[in-house]
Amino acid sequence: MENGLAKLKALGIMLISPGSTFSVPQLAFALLIAFAFLVIRHKRRRGSARFDVVARAMLARRIIFNRSTYADLAYFLINSLALGGLIGWGLFSARAISNFEIGALTAHFGARATTTAPDWALRAVMTGLLFLAYEFGYWLDHYLKHRIPALWELHKTHHTAEVLTPVTVFRVHPLDTLIFANIQAIVVGAVAGLSSYLLAKEAPIYSLDGVNVVLIVFVWAYVHLQHSQFWIPFTGALGRVFMSPAHHQIHHSTDPAHFNSNLGSCLAIWDWLFGTLVKPQRESPRLRFGVDEPGVNHHSLMALLIEPILNALVALVRPAAAVATPPAAAQPARPGETAH
């Protein structure tokens, strides 16, 4: 009983905290951004923008009352409440890896003289470095899950969403989350340890509710709109640096030309550097989302929780028989297409 109340309290804090990575204030702000974007686009195309037209585009019934959205909500509850403690099963922690690395470097190369840089500068440097480390860890985790058959079977759960809403971010298999947490711990811990050794000082980062403030800025700016029907593209040079909502919608596309692309979180730089970037065009191509496996109900509890584990085990035993890429084909747009 007490454990259940604690989880409900934690969920409530997450939903109202401005520093969480998913909160009601953030969602409201994201909707305001989407509304403003649609109004501006409608005015540019038609010379005026009607409130009822924009409202229908934002509150599309085909998105809200979709079985895929219902499954997203179920996963929101599963990951937030029933399986929230799974993250504690991680084999690695960033702090442990950082401390181990500092100890190893000190033992081999000796202690370094403490830096004389002001604390605010050190905190700013560490905040930026650890954000970049997080982004690289996100890209690496995502890349491996699109290339290794067993990992793809776990990650595929996220790609079975046929329409995208901000809640789709919770449509992630618990084991997928566990692997992500461990990869992030290794990458962020390694960067933190090396940086602390070179600076001869462990500098804290600028954070809000324990989350890197740079990440929070991106979450408030556009991350919630990455899982949405709103085609908001960053083109040109901007599209090589930042992962716009349209970038991520391309990542979810069933068009084979888009498979295994745009693997970053907030930034597109790692995709650009490693050749996995597909920049969006200015106008919406009316993408279709999901995983095309005829006869499979991807929104049942069995398909969301049990089958990914069984399929991953089969892929481990027979990797040649598995396909580490979304098994879908380009088809005409249907009710999951991007709004434009």
What does this structure look like?
There is one protein chain. With 340 residues, the chain is an all-alpha fold. The protein has a domain at 2-227. The protein contains 13 helices and two strands. The protein has a two-stranded antiparallel ribbon with strand order 1-2. Strand 1 (207-208) and strand 2 form a beta hairpin. The longest helix has 29 residues, at 119-147. The radius of gyration is 21 Å and the shape is globular. It starts with a helix and ends in a 23-residue tail after the last helix. The model is unreliable at 327-336 (pLDDT under 50).
Write the layout of secondary structure elements.
Elements: H1 2-16, H2 24-46, H3 51-58, H4 61-64, H5 67-82, H6 94-109, H7 119-147, H8 149-159, H9 174-199, E1 207-208, E2 211-212, H10 213-221, H11 245-251, H12 269-274, H13 301-317
Antiparallel strand pairs: 1-2
Helix pairs in contact: 2-3, 6-9, 7-8, 7-9, 8-13
